[in-house]
């Protein structure tokens, strides 16, 4: 459950992926390619140079063109990715 956690670490992994870590230790490498068809502000992120310029702002990820993602969405995706990793290792 997301408790207003902030992202504390963000590392570009190449293509459309970032390693994301929250202040409670939850972390995962996430593929953000699903965003690219979500509207005009996200279409601009198809430019990998622009996509690679994400930064932490207000506890979440934002890009220079004004695109950002709700931190609770990212938290849930990290949580799901962690569950998927656990299932794959079992």
Can you walk me through this structure?
- The protein is built from 3 helices and 5 strands, in the order βββααββα.
- It starts with 6 loop residues before the first strand and ends with a helix.
- The strands form 2 sheets. It has a 3-stranded antiparallel beta sheet with strand order 1-2-3, covered by helices on one side. A two-stranded antiparallel sheet has the order 4-5.
- Helices cover 30% and strands 28% of the residues.
- Mean pLDDT is 89; it is low at 86-90.
- It has one domain (7-89): NE0471-like N-terminal domain (NE0471 N-terminal domain-like, 2-Layer Sandwich).
- It has 90 residues and is α+β, with helices and mostly antiparallel strands.
- A hairpin with a 2-residue loop joins β1 and β2 (17-22).
């Amino acid at each position: 459950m997301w408790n207003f956690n902030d992202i504390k670490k963000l590392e570009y992994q190449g293509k459309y992926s970032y390693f994301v870590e929250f202040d409670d230790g939850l972390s995962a490498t996430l593929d953000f390619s699903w965003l690219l068809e979500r509207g005009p502000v996200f279409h601009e992120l198809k430019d990998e140079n622009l996509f690679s310029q994400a930064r932490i702002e207000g506890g979440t990820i934002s890009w220079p063109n004004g695109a950002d993602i709700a931190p609770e969405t990212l938290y849930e995706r990290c949580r799901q990715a962690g569950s998927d990793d656990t299932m794959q290792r079992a």
